[in-house]
Specification:
The protein has 438 residues and is of the alpha+beta class. Among the domains are: 224 residues, 3-Layer(aba) Sandwich (Replication Protein E1, Chain: A); 51 residues, no CATH class. It contains 10 helices and 18 strands.
């Protein structure tokens, strides 16, 4: 894939200290931490490493370390591939459905102030809805298993909480003696799903209010009164809730490619960014109301970053969850049973090859990379280089000499003092600039 010409890191570096200063009223340390991580991702600021093979003498170019933040557009590809590889042996030889539960726009301001509470309720009530409707003998009469992925954004980066659920087209009988296949393409009727989901979510939201779990911003302070909150909830029953249900699609192999569109996705990818000029950020968006036509939208720089930061998840929040017979505490027993009833064998877990005991590969940790003359950079070796295992490779990496001059791509980005020079914290002493990984 061709590297994008513009990245989120470039926009963050261009923000400078001014963006942080102008956002003092709402910006928090966790926002600053994510901005700092994205700006430093795969640059010399985080260090890097060099590898050299002792057999053939092949030496890799400088590999700069990634930030591994789950909101970073550049750090999710490898995590997604690892997750899909782990799920490969859990996919059943049957068709799958794609179901999406969306919260009404009326709840968006409340969700921004109570992300953990409302996103947890969205997961729980949508899962209970699917499990309850599927167990009904009028629809399927079976126990299903599925996983859900949380997304909180729209194509224009506005707040739009919804969960994508991937459900097998069938399930275990209630006595776990046979596999119940879906009688038709729509064994989960949308009208029933909408009604049950709406009732469960509003009831759970009312219960959370009674327990004092909700926080209200200043302009919604009146909602802290029980009578006003009850009146505010009442219109939610007068509008239809959106539940999208796609007909069953291909088998397990197709599902693996299909899942890549939804798992480990961030609010906006680098490939959607088009240009940044005159303080305006232009990006692509897909208009679902007009046959998914690709269009361009422009936002002021500060407004674009504010919208991006709206979608930061609470610390420790799990955004991919499993339910039914795929729940973590049950899959060890129910999943083999599903394969047995479907007349298929489960793919065995991949075994890692035994590490080499004769030769131990090592990597050079670059603790500092500084600019030298004539397009060179000097790499100084860390005193204690980190060793690691490269199982399955018949080569051994030797640490390089203490100091070595390396010729690399001479593309420099401007050093950004943004967030680095915050008067009140003084926590940012590292440079946000550096060179991008080749």
């Amino acid at each position: 894939m061709t590297p994008p010409l513009l990245e989120m890191a470039d926009l963050i570096r261009a923000a400078g200290t001014d963006f942080v200063e102008r956002s003092r009223q709402w910006i928090r340390w966790r926002h600053v931490k994510v901005l700092l991580a994205i700006a430093r991702c795969r640059t010399a600021a985080l260090g890097g490493h060099l590898d050299e093979c002792t057999r053939c003498g092949h030496r890799t170019p400088i590999s700069y370390n990634s930030c591994r933040d789950r909101h970073c557009p550049k750090c999710q590809t490898a995590a997604r591939e690892r997750w899909i590889a782990a799920r490969r042996r859990e996919l059943l030889p049957t068709r799958y459905l794609h179901v999406v539960f969306t919260l009404p726009h009326r709840l968006a301001p409340l969700a921004l102030q109570n992300k953990k509470v409302l996103y947890d309720l969205l997961f729980r009530t949508s899962a209970e809805t699917l499990l309850e409707v599927a167990r009904d003998p009028r629809h399927l009469g079976a126990e299903i298993g599925f996983f859900s992925v949380l997304h909180t954004w729209s194509q224009k980066l506005k707040i739009h909480p919804h969960v994508h659920c991937v459900v097998p087209a069938g399930g275990l009988s209630l006595d776990h003696t046979r596999w119940v296949r879906s009688p038709d393409n729509y064994f989960l009727p949308k009208a029933v799903l909408r009604k049950v989901f709406r009732g469960k979510f509003v009831a759970a939201l009312r219960q959370a209010f009674q327990k004092g779990q909700l926080r209200f911003p200043e302009k919604f302070k009146l909602l802290s009164e029980p009578e006003i909150f009850a009146a505010w909830l009442r219109p939610l029953f007068r509008q239809p809730w959106v539940v999208y249900l796609k007909p069953p699609f291909g088998g397990p192999e197709f599902v693996l490619h299909y899942l890549g569109r939804y798992t480990h996705r961030v609010a906006i990818s680098n490939h959607r960014l088009v240009s940044f000029a005159d303080g305006q950020v232009t990006f692509r968006w897909r208009d679902s109301a007009h046959h998914n036509e690709q269009k361009l939208a422009s936002l002021p720089h500060d407004k674009f970053l504010r919208r991006f930061l709206l979608h930061l998840l609470p610390q420790g929040f799990v955004r991919i969850r499993h339910f039914g017979f795929l729940a973590c505490r049950r899959r060890a027993t129910t999943l083999p049973l599903c394969f047995q009833l479907l007349g298929a064998s489960q793919e065995p877990a991949a075994k890692e090859p035994a590490p080499c005991t004769k030769r131990r590969p090592r990597s050079l940790s670059l603790s500092q990379v500084r600019r030298a003359h004539e397009g060179h950079r000097t790499a100084q070796r860390c005193r204690n280089p980190i060793s690691f295992s490269t199982t399955g490779l018949l080569c051994c990496m030797n640490p390089l000499t203490a100091t070595r001059t390396l010729r690399v791509s001479a593309r420099f980005v401007s050093l950004c003092p943004a967030i680095q020079q915050i008067p009140s914290s003084g926590l940012f002493n590292d440079t946000l600039g550096g060179i991008r990984a080749p």
